[in-house]
Amino acid sequence: MSTEAEQWRDDIVVLLPRLRRYCFTLTGSATDADDLLQNTIEKALSRYHQFEQGTDLDKWMFRMCKNLWIDEWRSRRVRGDTVDPMDYKNEPWIDGEDQLVNKLKMSEVGSAMNELQDEQRVIIYLIAIEGYSYKEASKFLNVPIGTVMSRLARARKALEILLQGPEMGTQRRLQ
Amino acid sequence: MIITDEILNAYLDGELSVDDIAEVAAQIKKSSELAKRIENMRLNDKSIAETYHAIDTKPMPDSIMEMLEEFPESQKTVLPFRKKTSVRASAPIWQMAIAASIMLFIGLGTGRYIMPSVSVTDISAGIIGPENTLYAVLENQPSAIAVALTANNDTLVIPSMTFRTSDNSYCREYIVTTQKSSTQNVACRIENNWVVKLSVGAQGKLSPESGLYQTASQTDNPLINSYIQGLMMDDALSAEDEALIMQKNWQ
Q1: For residue range B145-172, what is the model confidence (pLDDT) as tens digits?
Q2: CA distance linking residue B166 with residue B19, whole number of Å
Q3: Which of B73, B9, B145, B160 is nearest to A6 (CA)?
């Protein structure tokens, strides 16, 4: 039988893959994603005593993760770091026989995602990557479903323009 | 109906009513531009999902797993008292035995089949489709029987258990091991593909001298076991139930 603390830890373990993909979506780099994930887990564990029962662990962790990334991003801007976050050549795990998907495709998709506003990237993460329903996304983001729909529409249109060219994504109203 | 971007997105995401779906589908049928647009949106979503799910197959950093393993002892000084609440599902004995046997030796002579023209790339994809060699292993290979994926026996896959999740999909735990490294993985069957959910580094590796799979003296990673326990709806499938669901093509 596990203790409450171990159960809480195990709930985080179940969350890890989604949280890691979220880090990857935010940072655009697998290496940065794992660093961000590590910082998030470290901070979460150190704040176990502040976690109140009944709190949505997903939201608690994701918010912590995003805040850490914002801090990191600000600090990089201050330092003047200019590393291209979507430079997959820097990813040691995508090489030779271990290559997971076509590098060019990853690079193009990653670069396009990187062009999106934060809120657009997050809505794409929720709907296209994690397969949330609009209702689940609305609950997760604390916004009305109408906002989810308009934000998603803008994000997908921006991606169409970036990936297929400006002739796509022009709004069409057909009777 | 005026087809706005929002409606087109809701159509793509299956968020419209049955009547609205029919109406949008009819308009798409009449408009090649609209059809092209929805196809592009679908392709973009697929590429994005594949790109960002690719990280699932990169083993979880040891430092993160260690940090979690050490919890709550690492935080002992600040932990308040909380009562115990949970009861966990347990795997059947035959699968416990498998976990134990993985620690010993698994001979390649038993249950082995060699698949032609296999590259290691095939076993790394985040979404494992029918074109992928690992797909056939996950679809058809009973748990506890090792499969050599390459003619020179340098890549071995061992499915170790099958279980059902609360959303009624099936998942399998399996180990992929080469002479260099080993990973312990969980993949779930989603829309006729196998999708890698979690991959962590494991202790075992192939012994080049004997052609056998060996692990270090450590047992399975407890955190991947916790992850599996979090996904499992019931106990893991028995050998008979596993064979049955394979016969029914996982339906």
Answers
A1: 777 777 676 788 888 889 998 888 999 9
A2: 30
A3: B73
Question: What is the full DSSP assignment across B35-63?
Answer: HHHHHHHHHHHHHHHHHHHGGGGSPBPHH
Are B195 and B187 in contact, with CB atoms under 8 Å apart?
yes
Q: Chain B contact for A174, CB < 8 A?
A: yes
Alpha carbon of B76: minimum distance to chain A alpha carbons (Å):
10
Specify the pTM: 0.61
How far from each other are the two terminal CA atoms of chain A, in whole angstroms?
62
Q: Half-sphere exposure of A45 toward its Cβ, with a 13 Å CA cutoff?
A: 25
**Which amino acid, B96?**
M
Between strands B182-190 and B105-106, the pairing is: unpaired
Q: What is the dihedral of CA A80, A85, A87, A88, to 10 degrees?
A: 140
Mutate to test the interface with B, among A4, A52, A173 (most CBs of B within 10 A): A4
The answer to whether A138 contacts chain B (CB < 8 Å) is no
Q: How far is CA B74 from the centre of its chain?
A: 30
Q: With contact defined as beta carbons under 8 Å apart, do A25 and A128 qualify?
A: no
Does B55 reach chain A within 8 Å, measured CB to CB?
yes
Q: What is the mean pLDDT of each run of 10 residues along chain A (175 residues)?
A: 81 92 90 94 90 88 91 75 45 42 66 90 94 93 95 95 69 36
* ipTM metric: 0.79
Q: How many CB atoms lie within 10 A of CB B11?
A: 21
The rounded distance, in Å, linking the Cα atoms of B156 and A169 is 46
Question: What angle is formed at CA B178 by the lines to CA B219 and CA B221, rounded to 5 degrees?
Answer: 20
Strand order in the sheet with B105-106: B105-106, B212-214, B205-207
Strands B105-106 and B212-214: antiparallel
Query: Residue A36 in contact with residue A71, Cβ under 8 Å?
Result: no
Token pair listed for B14: 């299956």
Question: Does residue B72 have a cis bond before it (omega within 30 degrees)?
Answer: yes
| Closest CA relative to residue B138, chosen from B14, B245, B65, B24 | B245
